[in-house]
Amino acid sequence: MTATAVDLHPPTTRSAATRERALPDSAATPVTVAHGDGIGPEIMEATLRVLSAAGARLAPEPIDVGARMYAAGHTSGIADDAWDSLRRTRVLLKAPISTPAGGGYKSLNVTIRKTLGLHANVRPCASYAPFVPTRHPGMDVVIVRENEEDLYAGIEHRQTDEVYQCLKLITRPGCERIVRHAFEYARSHGRRKVTCMVKDNIMKMTDGLFYAVFEEIGAEYPDIERERYIVDIGAARLATRPEQFDVIVTPNLYGDILSDIAAELAGSVGLAGSANVGEHVAMFEAIHGSAPDLAGKGVANPSGLLLSAVMMLVHLRQGRVAERIHNAWLRTLEDGIHTADVKGPHTRRTVGTEYFARAVIERLGESPRTLRPVTYRDVAPRRPTSGAGNYQRRPAARKAMVGVDVFVHEAHASPELLAERLRRLRPPGLSLQMITNRGVKVWPNGLPETFCTDHWRCRFVTAQADGTIGHDSIIELLARLAHADVDVIKTETLCTFDGERGYALGQGQ
Amino acid sequence: MTATAVDLHPPTTRSAATRERALPDSAATPVTVAHGDGIGPEIMEATLRVLSAAGARLAPEPIDVGARMYAAGHTSGIADDAWDSLRRTRVLLKAPISTPAGGGYKSLNVTIRKTLGLHANVRPCASYAPFVPTRHPGMDVVIVRENEEDLYAGIEHRQTDEVYQCLKLITRPGCERIVRHAFEYARSHGRRKVTCMVKDNIMKMTDGLFYAVFEEIGAEYPDIERERYIVDIGAARLATRPEQFDVIVTPNLYGDILSDIAAELAGSVGLAGSANVGEHVAMFEAIHGSAPDLAGKGVANPSGLLLSAVMMLVHLRQGRVAERIHNAWLRTLEDGIHTADVKGPHTRRTVGTEYFARAVIERLGESPRTLRPVTYRDVAPRRPTSGAGNYQRRPAARKAMVGVDVFVHEAHASPELLAERLRRLRPPGLSLQMITNRGVKVWPNGLPETFCTDHWRCRFVTAQADGTIGHDSIIELLARLAHADVDVIKTETLCTFDGERGYALGQGQ
């Protein structure tokens, strides 16, 4: 594509001019707006113009984030007064930013997400066949991804010369909030099915919790179908038959992978918006980057940010305005007015950012004729995400400690010798039940084929049947091990909760 | 498709008869063979017939695994004498089996893999356009997946009322062996590129180790191009442009997802074989299941198992025989002789299991004309997988303990109050550095927006700059906490290795 093939500057038509309305300041909702880097300012300007023309009742408060703030020495790309605006408005519409390469800089997105507890990532991925080329016509899936916990809590330790560990944390409030978010989203957006993707055949406790909560909360929504996939097969199915899915709810890591698959399949990374929603604040942004090579040329596609703004309007209970914009945008695609990134056989005119925005504005009030029109109500979904309001902590379970896993760094042990040594050292009241290496039982009755690292998990349990132990037993055990120069690198207590085992058995146990 | 449309019983042609050769018993390699359940016996019989006709020098030892063994009370679906055969032959060709539904049964595959240390899963996924319908002509990717560690070590603990944990373990020997396997595979199979897929922008230590080892070992193979993808983008790219990839090496969980995506994309789950290779034993099997609904009808596609057998022959240094079979099989596809599962516009005759095997036998010695013929040499790849032989444990690093993360179960704490309490309780020599909740720093200088579970990670570090601590300090800390009824659920020591920090900082630290 050459620049000359793109219509950058549209003629102002009377139709567009009359459709633009002044922003009704009286009822305007303050929203924080970040123009970002690269193509950010251009697509933000186009988006705000459409919002204004459509009658969105917004009072944008611009903040400066990204490259300039990084350069000014803010390692997270954001200054204190920007946080203040965010806390006040509780809503951020954000254009893409550039995180500088090299060490010492932190991702602004991760910082905002973690700091403000944006626990739900919502990413609709639709194809717009035949108007935008795609291999998957009929695809219209929304990925609802848990956004705070799982392996992304970032708790990592090097434990021995050979072994590194990362903690995967899955919590009941985390599961409850994201699952409820997914079902509320489905209900308020007229969707019929929520699919849970987990690997609970392997991770029976962590992913098992996620799935149990899915069934538990899903039962409160009898109008919505529930479906479950093991994530490997689910990802494969999504990659080949995405039109089978409606709403997908999944933990953080799987969601990261699945949402990138979905966006790329739809053939429209430039068309997808997303929401990051928390109890206090919500952030709306396109899923694409700042594309510095396109910056300043006026050719970028504002659609991802525009659809993010549509999600923001729904969040702010301005559903009718959202609907006007979304339908006018669909009509623009149908009419073949396309930016260069989605050019295809149905393109009638390849246009720039400003022209495209103007074309959407001209179509405000119109609906698509082939694609399905959207409907949003002025009522926001019941606030499913207000954690404190929605998550009810249950009464504590009856917890009883029955043992402890002690992890030992030892390069030269054989399982038999290590076991013999540990059995000599254990205090009365505890017995050594097993030793595993990378999860495989190597004592008792290990197999000579098992490859062993320098990292041993040694399970001590109460010596009496149905007995319990106290922290003092563990401390005595640790003291004896320390005295004998056994290098303990970590412990995990073994507990029952209301009589139910709170730990997995060893493989082969 | 109706049964009558399938040619089940081929006429015996002279050509096929003359091409079958007697098995040369003198040089035969013993291999253990499991006929499995469902369609297993049919496709195994067809596969063995082709192997024999092609002159494979094999002495099959049948063992009984699967449904009958489960029914006989073997919870892992395998009896002791079968283990004996496996240990003797060190090679297993396995048809699919059925694991009974319901509790108490263990997956035979997981048992074999873990027990015998089959650390490398190798899964080639190719499309055979235009002869087999696929959206991705030109796809020919091999996924080399680490098979023993990562989250699949199965170490899970419920730690509090609200929080469950699974350990992700990544080890240097695990990384070295799988990465070397991938590069050796690439070199011996004439492949040009190995792509590493990890999430090391988030998991800097665990996935960071995997990637570091990839670079380290990959440098020994200057003839092979190295490439790296973050797994979310990599999975999306694989799902949309699989023909860009050659060999992919990746940890266990990602590999599980990526290999299912690749198999499904190729449009040929019924055509894909796989190898599970360890230091002592290797297992070869189709990737599909036992399809009980098709059992006994003579219509199943034996190709997945046949291509697994081809991989086995290469492993056994019978590359020329493997080549004869693989090329004859490609020619059969080209000739439009297809089982019903791959029926498409290029199908000239839809045939059953036996007929298909016979068609392959008839074409032994022929090569495909459109598809690319394969070449295997009679020399097996240098045994990259002999862990003991290949993995050289390095000298131990200088390890120094500088602190400890103590995890506390506490439902009613505020970060400030908890910190105050812990600071009062800490022994001399240790200071409280921070508290995080699900990885987010909540003390000092936490934010009121951060949602907190009942699971607190409290980091204590040596009170002197550059100081170290001993196990006695940790034990004293634990004793003081126990005395004050602080419910410690786990500990992780903080160490440096050769002066380098062996633990991640808290988010916001």
Commentary on this structure:
The structure is a homodimer of 509-residue chains. The first copy, chain A, is built from 15 helices and 20 strands. Chain A has 509 residues and is α/β, with parallel strands linked by helices. In chain A, the strands form four sheets. In chain A, strands 2-1-3-12-11-4-5-10-8-9 form a ten-stranded mixed β-sheet, sandwiched between helices. Chain A starts with 13 loop residues before the first helix and ends in an 8-residue tail after the last strand. About 3% of the residues of chain A have low confidence. Chains A and B meet through α5, β6, β7, α6 and α8 of A and α5, β6, β7, α6 and α8 of B.
Summarize the model shown.
2 copies of one chain form a homodimer. Chain A has 509 residues and is of the alpha/beta class.
Descriptive keywords:
homodimer; 509 residues; alpha/beta; ten-stranded mixed sheet
Rg of chain A computed from alpha carbons, rounded to a whole number of angstroms: 27 Å
Question: Which shape of chain A, going by the Cα principal axes?
Answer: elongated
Strand content of chain A: 15-25%
Multimer state: homodimer
Instruction: Indicate the mean pLDDT of chain A.
Output: 91
Low-confidence parts of chain A: 16-24, 384-389
Largest sheet of chain A: 10 strands, mixed
User: What is the topology, as strand order, of the major beta sheet of chain A?
Assistant: 2-1-3-12-11-4-5-10-8-9
So how many helices of chain A? Answer: 15
Major protein interface: A-B, 109 and 109 residues
Terminus-to-terminus distance of chain A: 63 Å
Strand elements of chain A, count: 20
Structural class of chain A: alpha/beta
